[in-house]
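Model it.
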Amino acid sequence: MKTIGLIGGMSWESTVSYYKIINETIKESLGGLHSAKILLYSVDFEEIEKCQAQGDWQKSGEILTEIAIKLEKAGADFIAICTNTMHKVADMVQEKINIPIIHIATATADEIINNNIKKIALLGTKYTMTQDFYKQKLIDRNIEVIVPNDEDIEIINNIIYNELCLGVIDKKSKEEYIKIINKLYEKGAEGVILGCTEIGLLIEDKDINIPVFDTAYIHAKKLANLSI
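Modeled.
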């Protein structure tokens, strides 16, 4: 079995999901007492979030690069960044290591294509929704991406950082998300990407009448299967 290197803690709430999903997948596949070989480096998210807010992607990229080098030296066969937003610096990190980073958007695009979906709604942090580093991975695979309007982007982003990353699950926030997703459905979205690894803590398949692509779940399953 290969060793998975996880860069987590962004937030730790969603990293818990990664650990659980990976090990459940290994157990389902191999049975018995099998569990995943994992090296986890969990960051102080306060430090990373400050870099995001200040637009200092260089510094945050350097932090993650240093961690990735440590994971490689410790014996990881490949690395996953357990968050969508910080894939903005994935190429920067990849340049400094000799093992692959398994990109969350690529794994998600594979699932979307497997479901024959051509037009997808994207929810996530404001960085993921408004910048190209994530969306372009989907567009390059001939997937049309639509995002909420500016007002709804702020609502989604605020709920992520002020609630979900703190472990707060609020019914009213769930209703807001569903309302926003339904607007995007009316614009032609055939499915929705939960493009922040915390959103899966709030929204489930049963809440929406179109296919839901939970990036944390998809990414974690991909990592587990690659390790076997």
